[in-house]
Amino acid sequence: MINQNFVILGAIISSTGGITYVIATIKGRVKPNRVSFLLWSLAPLIAFVAELQQGVGIQSLMTFMVGFLPLTIFIASFVNKNARWKLTRFDLICGGLSVIGLLLWYITSSGNVAIIFSILADALAALPTIVKAFNFPETESAIPFFTGMISAVITLLTIKVWNLANVGFPLYILIVSLLIATLVQFKPGKVFRTYFP
Q: Is 159 helix (H, G, I), strand (E, B) or coil?
């Protein structure tokens, strides 16, 4: 276990990745899926509030940043019309299911249940971007997902008490960031389509 103040370093690293994505969005080099990024901002911010209610300390800073940065990217996607990604029925279905997960959190009002439902909502919001990263990796950037992984690892290394409230969201962020960064960086979707057109 490392000093919990290292979470601040993780937040700075994550912010660097988020800022590069915001700039790439404004310049039209990446095309964020608005459903994913809007809901990626809501679910973590809800989890952040739940973590505070459960007594999670400075480690909740990572969860806050995981919500705040997608919100800035979502807003940036309206600045450049070339940064717009066409939404599909699949995107909207995942978004709707994600909203249901958020509503279930609100209905239960229990800290651990809120964290579970916020992870579920976030995962459903991630599906459109995961599919897009698999099929069109050139419309994404691996940098913010890579920095998100680093932030999650740092946060996990600072945890003293391993329970759902402390570990749930950072572990989930590590997994989903690793998946998306891998899909964007190594482009397995293009290789797959080469052999299975």
A: coil
